[in-house]
Write a structure and sequence with these properties.
By secondary structure, the chain is an alpha/beta fold. The protein contains 12 helices and 11 strands. Strand 7 (141-145), helix 5 and strand 8 form a beta-alpha-beta unit.
Length: 338
Amino acid sequence: MLKLDLHTHILPERWPDLEQRYGYGGFIRLERAGPCRGRLLRDERLFREIEENCWSPARRVEECDRAGIDVQVLSTVPVMFSYWARPADAHDLARLLNDHIAGVVHDRPRRFVGLGTLPLQDTALSLRELERCRRELGLAGVQIGTHVNGRNLDDPELFPVLELAEALGAAVFVHPWEMLAPERMSRHWLAWLVGMPTETALAIASLILGGVLERLPRLRVAFAHGGGSFVGTLGRIQRGFDARPDLCATATRTPPVAQLESIYLDTLVHDADVLRQLVRRCGARRLALGTDYPFPLGEERPGALVDSLEELDGAERERIFGGTALEFLAVDGSRFAS
């Protein structure tokens, strides 16, 4: 059974000093702390400590082999999106990151699939880079944030990017970043524990109620962390759609529950009952294994939560472990045959 991890992050082993390159601060830099460790810094403030598996393809392959993972889908660390930066600089950085991921995939095509990043603060530059990701670099699609500087994913300026993704057959993986109400989530790691699920739910609701999925029926879009808190609030969203169509049904005629067929979710929910709910509401054919490798909120033993659901049959397990991701990415599974 092919095991494919849809949700992993990677960085180059090194990149230029971006503050020096662009002339202002706010960018992430990597400070090595020995041969196998490093620190991500933003304006000299620690953002995150990382290990060699964040940048070393060889180390990733070793750890995948031990964990029984055949293929990883690579995307950048969301803090690198840099949607706040000047558009030309964000585009330059996106090109650097996308070239790196494409190179890793080129070197190990049986072990990795790549997703690019886009300078979404500028529609024209995003369209250009999306074309390059697909036509020149051969990436399966792109990873985008849950919002762009406060603009939700149904913002009219973002629609052309999603429209082109549909036309190019590019997969779109949505990951939370820059969480809501940071002033209220500065303690207890709440931005990661509560903010990320909320951000993801808001992104899904925006695409559904904003009519984006209805207008782009062939768009393949997946969401990290099991869709966050969306499925838990789906009943309330549907009730609002039914009870107050004057407020909730202004951009779409399709009920929210019916639009679950238009999205994919990863399995990174850390709770067997929550995963059971996702299987019941969305079906195994919309769920794909995701671990958030190599970060601490990820799944320590890839696939263990899926394996814990004894009620899943063989076809459902095969779908979650590989088939759903292959469909989402539009990748032929024979590419990974040894």
